[in-house]
User: Which sequence fits this backbone?
């Protein structure tokens, strides 16, 4: 039996269905992230697990015990809030010891466990300060210590790192992983930031519009995204419109406007002849070559275009290429290869693509950056 | 300091601007730069008038009271301490002071509890906050005296309260001219005054802190005593001051609703000035009471002050 068990979880606010029939499990000791754009219902899921919202339908159980209906102060779950919610009228030590005090732990043991927790988050000697005297990163550590000191079965995070600058955020990410391993606690982390989610999690739950899009390990989601949304949300993706012209055992033939290309069957997914599809490819898998190319050869998508912009990314650059047939594509290649305005050929292997059946109403689909 | 310079120049600028309507733009600019170069003068121009009013109508009369309280019989008489010794050695007067203190403490306690509950329910449970707040403040639109007469009507024998009780088959209480009548009157009058600071501090309270407390295992009562109340103690202290001080010096409410058994010290002072024409004695009582109230106030803010520092808005 998994530690956290969520089945058919649904939350309606009036006419709005914020969370729609969500199922997932978390195993003991895992670090799981719920990843989704703002408004996807991820925070609502978290708040239902914490007990701040009652589900409209569905079940949540922790360690086999049903949680629905029990108040937050009776759940063996602690949360790190987005704005941390440290008590400004209490010292750091009193903040951390707050939960222990509520559960009747004697003062001496409380002090001892608080001290140990301060050590764990590397804030020795900060106990007598007030939260307002600490920096943002230090406050994060106090909030984490305040949740962990109670030794809950599950710690919830409501994007607490989003207010930190990039450098500090990356540092806190590794700290989170270290502390999770040291305390052997299960973490459920909610974020809209795929970078954070990919960096810290064992598994991801991708949510959009209140529905689960995909659940899996980071590698699963990156290498075998089940939908264009997931492909686009977990790392960037180029999408080219095409039509399936033939389906055989060995592969699927797609015409994306530049001639037929055979795509291996396992990359193609579930498509039929005549389907309109998105041919998706990651920018780092796109090749850019100078000059005009005579022919594409077998198993390659290619077209010609002009380099329009370039953003420097260290050893690589992200080039925006205005293509003749597919609109603008992005390609991640060696930093100093091309000039803006240069005519180039872009190409990628059919083995690297993913095909997704096109949504019926492509016009209303928002372009994720 | 540079920011408010335009507004700060205005009070002083009226005079020359009125004298010559032409070329005011130049003059304004000149004046603005004049004040910008003299920040102290600018501060004086802004803060001066209010201080002038305070000195003229508060500090000077207070000083006059102090002087008069050391004189005998009438104003201008010989110097003496007898007004103070008479007052402080009279059991009758001291018992009135005690009674006043008891009533003031009771009123403050009732208003704080009822007012806090009211403000809390407005903030936490209602969506029509503005309307409810308006209703709370509404009685201020009617004169204090008229509202007191309305209470006489309600509380007197065979008044609204008694006849309602009669209709319900309950015995009449005829509360008028009793201590409960005074408490009811004061509670009614001061409640809105206390609700406003309570409301202000409760709306500033971050809801996440309440959730964090519950998340950490504190039930509703523990959350209230260890988070909500400490975080709003600022507003509570303000409310206590706003209620306690005017109650202590009040004379209209106890006279209209309290009858002869509920004499408060404000009534004694008023009597010395208006009926007995013993201004020096009235002034002496006034000074003693002022000292007592200020002492209580300092004590109160000291007690609350410790909480002020940590219980403020914070991070």
Assistant:
């Amino acid at each position: 039996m998994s530690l956290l068990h969520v089945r058919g979880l649904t939350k309606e606010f009036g006419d709005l269905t914020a969370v729609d029939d969500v199922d997932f499990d978390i195993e003991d000791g895992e670090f799981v992230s719920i990843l989704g754009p703002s408004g996807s219902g991820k925070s609502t899921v978290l708040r239902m697990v914490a007990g701040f919202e009652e589900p409209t339908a569905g079940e949540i159980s922790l360690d086999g015990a049903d949680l629905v209906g029990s108040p937050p102060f009776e759940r063996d779950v602690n949360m790190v809030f987005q704005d941390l919610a440290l008590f400004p009228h209490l010292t750091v030590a009193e903040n951390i010891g707050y939960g222990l005090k509520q559960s009747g732990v004697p003062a001496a043991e409380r002090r001892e466990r608080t001290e140990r927790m301060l050590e764990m988050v590397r804030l020795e000697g900060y106990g007598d300060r007030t939260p307002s005297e600490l920096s943002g990163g230090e406050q994060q550590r106090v909030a984490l210590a305040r949740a962990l000191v109670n030794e809950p079965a599950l710690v919830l995070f409501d994007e607490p790192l989003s207010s930190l600058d990039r450098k500090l955020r990356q540092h806190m990410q590794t700290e989170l992983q270290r502390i999770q391993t040291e305390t052997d606690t299960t973490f459920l982390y909610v974020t809209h930031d795929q970078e954070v989610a990919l960096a810290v999690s064992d598994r991801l739950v991708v949510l959009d519009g209140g529905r689960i899009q995909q659940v899996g390990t980071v590698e699963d989601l990156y290498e075998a995204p089940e939908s264009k949304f997931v492909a686009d949300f977990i790392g960037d993706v180029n999408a080219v419109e095409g039509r399936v012209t033939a389906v055989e055992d060995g592969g699927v033939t797609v015409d994306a406007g530049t001639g037929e290309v055979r795509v291996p069957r396992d990359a193609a997914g579930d498509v039929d002849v005549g389907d309109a599809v998105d041919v998706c490819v990651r920018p780092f898998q796109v090749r850019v070559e100078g000059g005009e190319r005579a022919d594409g050869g077998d198993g390659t998508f290619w077209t010609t275009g002009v380099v329009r912009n370039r953003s420097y990314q260290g050893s690589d650059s992200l080039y925006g290429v205005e293509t003749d047939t597919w609109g603008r594509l992005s390609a991640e290649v060696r930093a100093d290869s091309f000039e803006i305005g240069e005519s180039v050929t872009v190409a990628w292997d059919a083995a690297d693509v993913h095909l997704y059946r096109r949504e019926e109403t492509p016009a209303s689909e928002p372009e994720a950056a | 300091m540079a920011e408010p310079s335009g507004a700060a120049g205005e009070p002083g600028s009226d005079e020359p601007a009125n004298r010559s309507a032409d070329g005011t733009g130049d003059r304004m600019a000149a004046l603005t730069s004049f004040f910008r170069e003299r920040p102290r003068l600018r501060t004086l121009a802004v803060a001066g008038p209010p201080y002038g009013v305070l000195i003229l109508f508060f500090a000077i009369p207070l000083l006059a009271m102090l002087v008069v309280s050391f004189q005998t019989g009438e104003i201008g008489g010989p110097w003496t301490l007898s007004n103070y010794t008479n007052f402080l050695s009279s059991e009758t007067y001291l018992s009135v002071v005690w009674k006043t203190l008891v009533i003031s403490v009771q009123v403050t306690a009732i208003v704080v509890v009822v007012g806090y509950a009211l403000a809390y329910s407005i903030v936490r449970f209602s969506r029509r906050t503005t309307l409810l707040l308006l209703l709370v403040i509404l009685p201020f639109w009617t004169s204090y005296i008229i509202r007191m007469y309305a209470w006489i009507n309600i509380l007197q024998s065979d008044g609204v309260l008694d006849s309602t009780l009669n209709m319900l088959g309950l015995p009449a209480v005829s509360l008028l001219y009793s201590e409960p009548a005074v408490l009811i009157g004061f509670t009614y009058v001061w409640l809105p005054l206390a609700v406003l600071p309570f409301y202000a501090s409760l709306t500033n309270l971050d809801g996440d802190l309440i959730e964090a407390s519950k998340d950490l295992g504190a039930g509703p009562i523990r959350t209230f005593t260890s988070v909500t109340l400490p975080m709003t103690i600022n507003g509570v202290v303000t409310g206590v001051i706003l209620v306690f001080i005017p109650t202590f010096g009040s004379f209209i409410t106890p006279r209209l609703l309290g009858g002869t058994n509920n004499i408060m010290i404000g009534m004694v002072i008023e009597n010395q000035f208006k009926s007995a024409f013993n201004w020096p004695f009235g002034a002496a009582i006034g000074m003693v009471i002022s000292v007592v109230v200020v002492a209580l106030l300092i004590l109160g803010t000291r007690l609350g002050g410790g909480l002020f520092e940590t219980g403020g808005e914070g991070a």
The radius of gyration of chain B is 26 Å.
